[in-house]
Design goal:
The complex is a heterodimer. Chain A is mainly alpha-helical. In chain A, 60% of the residues lie in helices and 11% in strands. Chain A has helices at residues 7-10, 12-27, 29-32, 118-154, 156-171, 174-184, 191-206, 208-222, 225-232, 237-273, 285-289, 295-300, 306-331; strands at residues 53-55, 61-69, 72-75, 77-87, 91-99. Chain A has a 3-stranded antiparallel beta sheet, with no helix packed on it. A two-stranded antiparallel ribbon of chain A has the order 4-5. The longest helix of chain A is centred in the middle third of the chain and has 37 residues, at 118-154. The N and C termini of chain A lie close together (10 Å). Chain B is an alpha+beta fold. Helices cover 28% and strands 21% of the residues of chain B. Chain B has 15 helices and 26 strands. In chain B, the strands form 8 sheets. In chain B, strands 15, 16, 17, 18, 21, 22, 23 and 24 form an 8-stranded mixed beta sheet that branches. A 4-stranded mixed beta sheet of chain B has the order 2-14-12-11, with helices on one face. In chain B, strands 5-6-10-9 form a 4-stranded antiparallel beta sheet, with helices on one face. The chains are: A mainly alpha, B alpha+beta. The interface between A and B is medium-sized, with 21 and 33 residues.
Chain lengths: 334, 588
């Protein structure tokens, strides 16, 4: 393989920074979200995004933006007191970044059919959707690294068993199985349990692909001259695996993780879309998108597509990252 | 609101206009025509109707699914028909009838000169044969149960070629209504299969069209599975209009099969069909917004016979149940707990958010659409969180420091509402109740299950806490809901198939329901059923929530269309429908 400059590779740091910002927004959802994500304002069902104004009806320009509520202007306020929240289970507060005085309401991304603020739900939903993906991907890749490494290094019947098992996992129709698994579980699952379930499912389902790749890398690495040399010098299996073979596989694993993370984010969205993920009223991007199954929502309320847009943006960042990582791995000597 | 008033006044005006049919105006003629009182129209054209699923059978004896019934309702006829507008029995194939003073003998005079759609004559032998088939246990007709009175099947006897006599073991409140929708069968076609014991399997959907014959306004022409079913005009139909034109007016009736609710709205919007019923409120709103540009009318017929409700699991606790299950059932069996849930539930929000106003909030289980039976004097306590809290306090519940409701033992109160997947309305209702109850400190989970799995839990394994479900009385008569309200009933949802009534009020409902079935006077039956409604509203075995409106759409220009809340909402008088302003014979 030859190293060639790639546009994504150059923006590696920008991409990473953008992803960090997205994840920080999810962690600080409580502060950034104007409202409690499950609070229903029943007089404001399917309200389009609130318009921010700088120029009032008399033509005067205001530095501080404001919103109209029944013809009256209400200025945007910062660090307002609102619904209590906790951040990362560490500290709690009631201060929110943005807000307006009642009876006006600030729905920057509109509301859903129960009058719940879409922006708040999107931020809180990210806590589930964005973390289930990378955590699941990390688990998958660790499984893949261990199993693929063993298969590639030892070969023989170990290889045969692991790889046949991997093929089995690739061939199972997972969604049907998941419906069956869900039926067997107790009726009610807490959001944390649902999160753990999603994580377990995507990790267990997904180990086979990275395992195959890593097996290939290990298989080719095992026969390299310097590995042969190390063995000739009396190095143990473990030593060779640790010092010479796995470091090569590590770059592949990292790229795989960056590729799998968005797929798993989508898997969470799909599970929640079918009602198998976290349940109401806890938001996730998948269950937020589930309302698009309804024709009236699809045809009438464009702002209900916004979680889809957010998903797309996150995907793009991850793929850019995977591309950049791939470039770096390919550029590595050896 | 104004729309509902308008619909009501329209319905009333039509009731007065219709009146009783003039049964025997043309006694001298060979055929005793039934003369329709509807506006006279012009023959020709076809009507395309959306049906949600394909028929399972063309055999009226064993048909049980709605699509088969919708279609067979147009190709068959009954002796006495309940008018879908007035809810009153009307002459059909029987031009008149008498009832003995003890209410146990009906004597029916058949219309003379009536022919099946294949041209063969219809008489008392066909009637006797039909009832023999329906009552034969080996055939397994779902109609059989309705023809058992006082534990004995009704006895049907031929008096002469045009007179039959029907004897009942005891007086039966439903009386002549039991003849409604019992399709008369052609003996000349079905006697051989019946004698050979294969009647239940005859007239399956694959049978060629010329093997059928019925007495309805249309007859089968062609069925293309997966696409459409075409009925053509029955030239032997026994009704005319006031000008003497033979009914039906339409040449063809085409059913197209569209499974999903959304796809139905889309197909109708695109102009692929003339009639769609059972529109969801949200799709109705979408169609309404587009109405100016399109060639259709939309009709809100008002709250129908369906009622949606929440109920709690009140089955007795088995020894194998866990202590948590036992504790929960303990809450659910307390009236004050159920009252608090009812008081905290925002029915108006359900009407507004889920149904966009196309529904009526309910405090009793009979919806206002069922005008004949609804008890209008039931109290309608408005939503009140304070009163809900007061009810809970009176039953020994309290609130902990974080605002969560706890029972006498300090255990936090939480439960799960199940409802069926695929019904977005019920899912939304459950989510609204979840938020309502959060405000009185109850933590509620919402879980959706596939309908069959849900019913299995509710009726068989009893493994659930609470459930949002809907029921609909087919004809609005309380007799059709015996199974729900009798404590021995299989669909006595909150505690089915009890050996003995678990509570005094369930015992009282049992008595009232059995009595209303034996009494003949409507007023007395109404009085008894009013009491049932009051008992249900007081004891809240089901917390009635909402009754959705029946919403339909039709292509502009369809005359005599008088949709009702009864099945089939738009086609019940299909013989009278015609296209206004289209020349005769023109097809779309």
């Amino acid at each position: 393989m030859t190293s060639r400059p790639h546009p994504a590779g150059r923006n590696y740091h920008v991409t990473l920074l953008a992803l960090v910002v997205v994840y920080l927004a999810a962690i600080f959802a409580g502060f950034l979200a104007p409202y409690d994500p499950s609070a229903q304002s029943r007089d404001f069902a399917f309200v389009p995004p609130t318009g921010l104004h700088w120029i009032d009806m008399s033509g005067a320009v205001h530095l501080r933006p404001f919103v109209y509520q029944e013809g009256r202007p209400y200025p945007l306020r910062f660090f307002v007191r609102g619904a209590p929240y906790r951040i990362a289970r560490l500290f709690s507060s009631q201060r929110h970044l943005l807000g307006v005085d009642a009876p006006a309401a600030l729905f920057l991304l509109g509301t859903d059919g129960f009058g719940r603020d879409q922006l708040s739900r999107l931020l809180y939903g990210a806590q589930i959707s964005l973390f289930a993906g990378p955590l699941g991907a990390a688990l998958s890749v660790v499984f893949g690294l261990v199993l693929g490494g063993l298969a590639g290094f030892f070969g023989g019947w170990v290889d045969a068993i692991i790889m046949r098992a991997g093929e089995l996992f690739l061939a199972v129709p997972w969604y049907y199985l998941l419906f069956a698994v869900r039926m067997a579980l107790p009726l009610r699952i807490e959001p944390q349990e649902a999160f753990a379930m999603i994580l377990a499912i995507v990790a267990v389902v997904g180990w086979a692909r990275p395992a195959r790749l890593i097996r290939g890398v290990v298989l080719s690495g095992r026969t390299r001259d310097y590995v042969e040399a190390a063995r000739a010098l009396g190095a143990s299996d473990l030593h060779v695996l640790r010092r010479h073979v796995l470091p090569q596989a590590f770059g592949v694993a990292l790229t795989q993780a960056a590729l799998l993370a968005p797929q798993y984010i989508l898997a969470e969205a799909t599970l929640s879309f079918f009602g198998l993920g976290v349940g109401e009223p806890v938001p996730s991007w998948g269950n937020m998108l589930a309302v698009l199954q309804r024709y009236d929502v699809l045809s009438s309320y464009w702002w209900m597509f916004l979680p889809g847009g957010a998903l797309l943006a996150v995907f793009l960042l991850y793929y850019l990252l995977a591309d950049a990582l791939h470039e770096r791995v390919a550029a590595l000597p050896g | 609101m104004s729309r509902r008033l308008a619909a009501l006044s329209l319905a009333l005006s039509v009731v007065f206009a219709a009146g009783p049919p003039l049964a025997s105006q043309q006694r001298a003629a060979a055929t005793e025509w039934l003369v329709s009182r509807a506006d006279t129209g012009r023959p020709g054209g076809q009507l395309v109707v959306i049906e949600r699923a394909e028929p399972r059978t063309f055999n009226p004896v064993v048909a049980i699914d709605a699509p088969s019934k919708d279609i067979l309702g147009r190709t068959t006829a009954d002796l006495i028909h309940v008018d879908r507008e007035t809810q009153q029995p009307q002459a059909a194939l029987a031009r008149s009838w008498t009832v003995s003073p003890d209410g146990r003998r009906f004597t029916l005079s058949l219309r003379r000169g009536v022919r099946f759609s294949d041209g063969q004559p219809f008489d008392a032998d066909d009637v006797v044969f039909s009832f023999r088939v329906y009552l034969d246990e080996k055939v397994g007709s779902p109609q059989r149960d309705l023809l058992i009175v006082g534990d004995k099947p009704i006895a049907v006897r031929k008096v002469d070629q045009y007179t039959v006599q029907v004897d009942l073991a005891e007086a039966y409140a439903v009386g002549e209504r039991m003849f409604d929708s019992v399709a008369m069968l052609p003996r000349h076609l079905l006697e051989t299969p019946y004698n050979e014991g294969r009647l239940a399997r005859t007239w399956a959907v694959g049978t060629p069209a010329d093997a059928f014959a019925g007495l309805g306004p249309f007859r089968l022409k062609e069925y293309v599975p997966g696409q459409r079913l075409t009925l053509e005009r029955n030239p032997f139909f026994w009704k005319t209009d006031r000008a003497g034109t033979h009914l039906p007016y339409l040449d063809r009736l085409v059913f197209v099969f569209v499974p999903s609710e959304d796809a139905q709205a889309l197909r109708f919007q695109a102009g692929d069909a003339d009639v769609t019923t059972r529109l969801s409120a949200t799709n109705f709103e979408v169609l309404q917004r587009d109405r100016g540009k399109r060639n259709y009318d939309l009709l809100d017929i008002g709250p129908g016979l369906d009622y949606t409700f929440l109920f709690f699991n009140q089955n007795s606790v088995a020894q194998t149940d866990s202590p948590q299950v036992a504790r929960r059932r303990g809450w659910f069996r307390q009236l004050a707990f159920r009252q608090a849930v009812s008081l905290a539930t925002d029915r108006d929000a359900i009407v507004r958010l889920v149904y966009r106003g196309h529904a009526a909030p309910l405090w009793g289980h009979v919806p206002p659409g069922n005008k004949l039976w609804v008890n209008r004097s039931l109290p309608k306590p408005p939503r009140s969180l304070d009163r809900a809290r007061e009810r809970l306090r009176s039953a020994g519940f309290s609130w902990n420091a974080s605002g969560a409701l706890v029972d006498k033992d300090g255990q936090p109160v939480d439960f799960t509402i199940v409802t069926n997947t695929g019904n977005t309305e019920r899912m939304q209702i459950a989510t609204i109740i979840q938020d309502d109850l959060k405000q009185i400190g109850i933590r509620v989970g919402v879980v959706t299950l596939e309908l069959r799995a849900l019913l299995q839990r509710v009726l068989t394994t009893h493994d659930y806490d609470a459930c949002v479900l809907a029921l609909g009385a087919a004809d609005g008569d309380p007799s059709s809901e015996m199974n729900v309200w009798l404590s021995t009933g299989g669909t006595h949802l909150w505690n089915p198939e009890q050996a003995a009534p678990a509570t005094p009020w369930e015992a009282e409902i049992d008595t009232l329901m059995r009595r209303q079935l034996a009494v003949r006077e409507l007023q007395e039956r109404k009085r008894l059923y009013d009491r049932v409604q009051a008992l249900v509203a007081e004891n809240l075995p089901v917390i009635s929530l909402v009754s959705p409106s029946v919403l339909a759409g039709t292509t502009k220009g369809l005359a005599n269309l008088r949709p009702t809340i009864f099945d089939h909402h738009a086609l019940w008088n299909v013989d009278e429908l015609f296209w206004r302003g289209r020349p005769a014979g023109e097809t779309r």
